[in-house]
Amino acid sequence: MGRELFFLLLCPAVMCNVAFPNPRDLVSEYVSKHNPLDLPLPHSTSSLEVSVNFNLLHIEDLDESKQLLTTTGWFFFAWSVEGLSWNESEYQNISRIMVSPKDIWLPDLVLSNSNVNLGGESQISTISSNGTMEWHDIDRRSTSCAVDVTNFPFDKQRCFFELTQWVTFTSEIDYIFNSVPISFTSLTENGEWEVLDSFVNEYYPGQGLYQVLELGFILGRRRTYFILTAVLPVCILSCLNLMVFHVPPESGEKMTLCVSVLLAYAVCLTSINSFLPSVSDHVALFSIYLHYMFVLKALTVVASVFVLHLHTAQPKSTIRKRLTKLLSAYPKKATTCTLSTGNTDDNDLTDASMKPNTNTEDAKQVLEQEQWFHIVKKVDLLFFCVFLIVFIVSTCGFFCTTAFRQV
User: Where are the alpha helices (DSSP H) in 251-284?
Assistant: First the structure.
């Protein structure tokens, strides 16, 4: 009985001193025998296969003037390492452990179109029980992106990350894209840009000695804000500008409305210029459209001044005579008129023939003035039709050119 009690007390102490196998022992042994700068080439093949993937977290900004895209995300690299696999049942059912990136070999890819630095900072590495090494490189990156604002605000931009093989050769490492090269599962939406699509490319410069990977995406500008704050006010002011030609010249309000619309458009143009992309290599068609509308409104002022000049033209002026000849729609009438429809005696006829026919001259002047006012209205209508056609053609041309063009 005493012996059994002794063994019962001794077993916990023995169990505490028993060391269960841990995968970290394998990693420590591997690190002690291998240099982190040595390429872990497998014995069965002549090259190491590395899988590449990118996970986009957030698009922070796309600066059109500097042509820089600022994003947050992480690159995911995976490759197999011989000598670092274990049986999970023999190692406390541990399937994966964390490894310091300084103790193992890492791919020599660099972000060649980065604006901050060429290399990234290693964040975390893990090794799985089947010998698969994983490297997660997360960082906030600013990369160059050629921005074309021609179709603003309906533009789309192609931006990409360019990973360049730096030291090793393609005969030693074969970089391949993951089954899902670019992942957006953790993406936080941006207020100005949305991700429309993604693409990947690879090419081999230096006579095929090196490999370059491109992981990119197509960004589309969210246009609702710009339509409500820029396109719609411009179209409304342009339509209001056409109403100037429906204001009668004799009302005295034609120039008031014309100048008021021009000043309102100038104020609106100042507000719009605050968010127009300031890029010189590509001029936005919308900017050209805005200045074209400004010139059109300035020409409206000139046309209104011309109509008022016609309205006050003297009967003997040259322009009045020519326009009367070209646009007159009234048939020629007799210049004489009957003064009275009743019976008159010979003395009355004799007296009437001896007096100047003042009533006939007054009636003729009234008729000519009414005819001239009608011609001025025709000129107003002609200007309205011309400016309306120019506005419709230019606006439709702008929308058809920008909204329906593809990247």
Answer: 254-273
Band of pLDDT at residue 220, cut at 50, 70 and 90: very high
C-alpha closest to that of 406 among 171, 225, 157: 157
Q: Which fold has domain 21-222?
A: Acetylcholine Binding Protein; Chain: A, (2.70.170)
Could you check whether the bond before residue 153 is cis, i.e. omega within 30 degrees of 0?
yes
Question: Do 136 and 76 meet the contact criterion of CB atoms below 8 Å apart?
Answer: yes
Tally of residues, the chain: 407
Spatial distance between the Cα atoms of 272 and 259, rounded to a whole number of angstroms = 20
Nearest to 34 by CA among 129, 110, 133: 133
Helix (H, G, I), strand (E, B) or coil at 116: coil
Task: Give, in order, the Cα–Cα distances in Å from 207 to each of 32, 111, 162, 210, 326.
Answer: 37, 21, 18, 8, 77
* Residue ranges per structural domain of the chain: 21-222, 225-332+364-402
DSSP per-residue letters across 187-210: PBPPSSEEEEEEEEEEE-HHHHTS
The CATH topology of domain 225-332+364-402 is Methane Monooxygenase Hydroxylase; Chain G, domain 1 (1.20.58)
How far apart CA 267 and CA 255 sit, in angstroms, is 18
Q: What is the largest CA-CA distance in the chain?
A: 172
* Residue scoring higher pLDDT (124 or 147): 147
Tell me the C-alpha distance between 43 and 99, whole Å.
Answer: 23
Query: What CA–CA distance (Å, rounded) separates 78 from 173?
Result: 12
**pTM for this model (two decimals):** 0.75
**Residue 356 CB partners (closer than 8 Å, separation 6+):** none
What is the rounded CA–CA span in Å between residue 349 and residue 346? 5
The 10s digit of each residue's pLDDT in 225-274 is 999 999 999 999 999 999 999 998 888 888 899 999 999 999 999 889 88
- Please, what sign has the CA dihedral across residues 280, 286, 289, 294? negative
Q: What tokens does 385 get? A: 């039709």
Task: Give dist(CA 238, CA 242) in Å, integer.
Answer: 7
Q: Looking at residue 65, what is its pLDDT? A: 86
Cα–Cα distance list, 347 to 146, 342, 352 (Å): 99, 14, 9
